[in-house]
């Protein structure tokens, strides 16, 4: 087994060794029960410090891939058994409900959501929509409406219980322990927690005002060490937390770099119909390699708990099949409500109004902070990403004045340098914008 490991190791750092061994375990090259070489044996063979191998072994042991058994040696277990720990997500959800003016949540303004009452009444007249556990998981009327609005022709399409449910299920179809995945930096904290839970190796890609930087993707794909990435996770519109929306030019550039590679693009269109940018997808260039997730929580209502997943057939049908051993399907009653909403003129007018209000609040707050000497961006969506001198000082300063904001650190897939806060500017009433801007600027200066 010593030769198997040394022949596979390209990156001789602790992280590189841990990733190599985990991939060998997942591939079956190191079956359960295999006795691993000693730390000193592997270090000598690789020409590195035993400390480096010890660090790799500790990482694998914490993930449940290997187990030390004293003098008997260290052995491969049946597979990773790391417990899920939403540690980043917990950090951005500490204050909700505890402060009078909480702008940390990333949730839509309830006053700008469509009125569900008349739609619910119409749907209720149709009676129970599920007569058999074997019915198709997606209502035909909803599937038709979704396919019309999809940014590319999806090979398969299903409905799940929200965007995070979709990300979770798609990730478990694509990513194994030790798999290398590419993410935006900064990005959504629960996604980073999810990738930690499955034992992925995360590579952070910086953003500019058009999306992921092409040179960063090129470098990640051309890295001499490590395995080929299995997935690239993107938020194509109103990226959380920066608000950046990917341009058509950038989508074409990224697709050109990914063409011919075994990398699945996973797109999380979490803002959906309240984003001002038009839907752009790498699926328009790489339909056979893209899975697109469209959420309706911020636009039509969080309690609908619905998101659609469409794209690569093997991934979408795989997760739909796996759901048969769990929830089976998402409520067809809620699907019928969504189908009605997608064809309702009053709802379209409500969404247009919401987009306009969110845009006005973003623009007003960004201008107000700029005038006060604070660097902030909020080009789309409901959030604002602002630089602060000290994250903790800024949070405490705002909390003392009854205002909640989300710390920036949990959004970092890799350190960004400057400190940040995410503020859900879409929740700030127009009449409070100037007063809140004063407090945000004061907190930003520390």
TrEMBL record:
UniProt entry tagged with the keyword Transferase: yes
Domain HTH gntR-type: 11-79
SUPFAM superfamilies reported for this sequence: PLP-dependent transferases (SSF53383), Winged helix' DNA-binding domain (SSF46785)
Keyword Cell inner membrane among UniProt keywords: no
Keywords: Aminotransferase, DNA-binding, Pyridoxal phosphate, Transcription, Transcription regulation, Transferase
CDD domains linked: AAT_like, WHTH_GntR
GO MF, any single term: transaminase activity
One Pfam family, short name: GntR
InterPro entries, per the entry: Aminotransferase_I/II_large, HTH_trans_reg/aminotransferase, PyrdxlP-dep_Trfase, PyrdxlP-dep_Trfase_major, PyrdxlP-dep_Trfase_small, Tscrpt_reg_HTH_GntR, WH-like_DNA-bd_sf, WH_DNA-bd_sf
Family: In the C-terminal section; belongs to the class-I pyridoxal-phosphate-dependent aminotransferase family.
Record-given protein name: Transcriptional regulator, GntR family with aminotransferase domain
Organism: Pseudofrankia inefficax (strain DSM 45817 / CECT 9037 / DDB 130130 / EuI1c)
């Amino acid at each position: 087994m010593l030769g198997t490991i040394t022949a596979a190791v390209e990156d001789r750092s602790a992280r590189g060794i841990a990733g190599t061994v985990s991939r060998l375990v997942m591939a079956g090259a190191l079956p359960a029960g295999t006795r691993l070489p000693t730390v000193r044996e592997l270090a000598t063979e690789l020409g590195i410090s035993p400390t480096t191998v010890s660090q790799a072994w500790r990482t694998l042991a914490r993930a449940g891939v290997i187990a030390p058994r004293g003098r008997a040696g260290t052995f491969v277990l049946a597979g990773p058994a790391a417990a899920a720990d939403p540690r980043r997500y917990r950090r951005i959800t500490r204050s909700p409900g505890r402060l009078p003016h909480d702008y940390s949540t990333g949730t839509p303004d309830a006053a700008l959501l469509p009125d569900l009452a008349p739609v619910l009444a119409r749907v209720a007249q149709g009676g129970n929509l599920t007569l058999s556990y074997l019915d198709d998981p997606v209502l035909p009327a909803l599937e038709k409406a979704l396919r019309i609005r999809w940014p590319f022709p999806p090979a398969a399409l299903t409905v799940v219980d929200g965007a995070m449910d979709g990300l979770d299920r798609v990730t478990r179809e694509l990513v194994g322990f030790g798999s290398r995945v590419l993410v935006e930096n900064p990005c959504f904290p629960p996604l980073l927690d999810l990738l930690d839970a499955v034992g992925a190796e995360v590579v952070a890609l910086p953003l500019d005002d058009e999306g992921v930087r092409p040179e960063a993707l090129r470098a990640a794909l051309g890295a001499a060490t490590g395995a080929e990435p299995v997935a690239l996770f993107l938020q194509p519109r109103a990226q959380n937390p920066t608000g950046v929306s990917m341009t058509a030019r950038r989508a074409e550039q990224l697709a050109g770099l990914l063409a011919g590679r075994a990398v699945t693009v996973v797109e999380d269109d979490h803002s959906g119909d309240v984003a001002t940018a038009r839907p752009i997808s790498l699926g328009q260039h790489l339909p056979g390699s893209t899975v697109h997730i469209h959420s309706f929580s911020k636009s039509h209502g969080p309690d609908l708990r619905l998101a659609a997943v469409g794209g690569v057939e093997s991934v979408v049908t795989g997760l739909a099949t796996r759901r048969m051993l769990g929830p089976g399907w998402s409520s067809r009653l809620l699907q019928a409500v969504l189908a009605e909403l997608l064809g309702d003129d009053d709802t379209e007018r409500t969404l247009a109004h919401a987009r306009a209000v969110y845009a006005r609040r973003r623009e007003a707050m960004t201008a107000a902070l700029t005038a006060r000497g604070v660097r902030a961006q909020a080009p789309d969506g409901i959030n604002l990403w602002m630089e602060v001198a000290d994250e903790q000082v800024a949070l405490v300063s705002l909390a003392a004045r009854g205002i909640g904001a989300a710390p920036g650190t949990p959004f970092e897939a890799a350190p960004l340098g400057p400190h940040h806060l995410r503020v859900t500017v879409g929740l700030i009433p127009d009449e409070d914008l100037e007063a809140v801007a004063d407090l945000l600027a004061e907190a930003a200066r520390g």
